[in-house]
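Final report, section 2: Outcomes. Of the targets proposed, LacI family transcriptional regulator is the one most frequently requested by collaborating groups, and we therefore present its record in full.
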Amino acid sequence: MRFEAVTIKDIARALGLSTSTVSRALRDSYEISPETKKLVLDYAEKINYQPNPIALSLKERRTHSIGVIVSEIANSFFSQAIDGIESVAYRNGYNVIISQTRESAEREQVNLNYLTSRSIDGLIVSVSAETSDFSNFRELYERGMPIVFFDRIAPDINTYKITVDSYRGAYDATVHLIRNGYNRIAALASNVLLSITRDRLAGYRAALADHGLIEKDEYIRYCQHGGLILEETDIAVSEMLNAPERPDAILALSDKLTTGCLRVLKAHKIKVPHDIALIGFSNSDLTELIDPALSIIKQPAFDMGEMATNSLLQMIESKKPITDFNTTTLAPQLIIRDSSQPGR
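The predicted structure is given below as tokens.
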């Protein structure tokens, strides 16, 4: 049996009224008596009548829906950001349609095509690890689609962007390891195409240089899909362990890479931090419960989601085109636990 939503015609038929009278009553028109309005509204509530969003969008030229594109919904950072997005959207009467790329540029384009075909009012995007060409976003933006980027941004599109100071997060984490006596520090990175990867590696390199440590190529390894593919993490960490001089600490530059790195170290029977220290970017509450408890660089994901949505709604609802945009950079939080304490 095919589901059919209740319509104004159904209400009119049940109450013995014309469809125009029901429509005006639902819009609280002055032309309809209070008694008739109450009759219509009470019956509409009883049968859980909901206005047709397609009909409303045709009339108002707005769907009150926004699209969100992230790499992985299960990722703790993105799930917290989505919570922030939905909290603002809900308060302002907007629905949220969420899609994930799984770090695939091809899948990102499919999601983009689907969302824009649904006549959404705007987009909030954190680009995939594979994305190097932003012309599809630029074309949509230039045609009038409001777009806000957060975390992983398209640098050359002039719109609102919400980021975290990834450079500072990686710099402070590396300095923490150095002060705890580690001087052979490796970096496990995501795809180099990502702006956050470049910023985090720059912070790592600057901390080494500022403390007189030499950067070694064999200590930097990339996972093109940011830890989503376990084999990539296995290979990258194993290559670090097989370096002529094994690192004594690892800085992991994303959520999946942090927990994935610990998994590989345990598989190799390497004790953390006794043999190798570990610290990484993560928003997962489970990092405190893991043995050893993981030191992390935590990002204000919920705040980022809120700010991105407020910025997008400002673009959607502004009476005049907005031309003056800014990039907001929030501070990360360094949380020190067992995994980065002095080892041997």
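The chain has three domains: 8-51, 63-164+301-330, 166-299+334-340.
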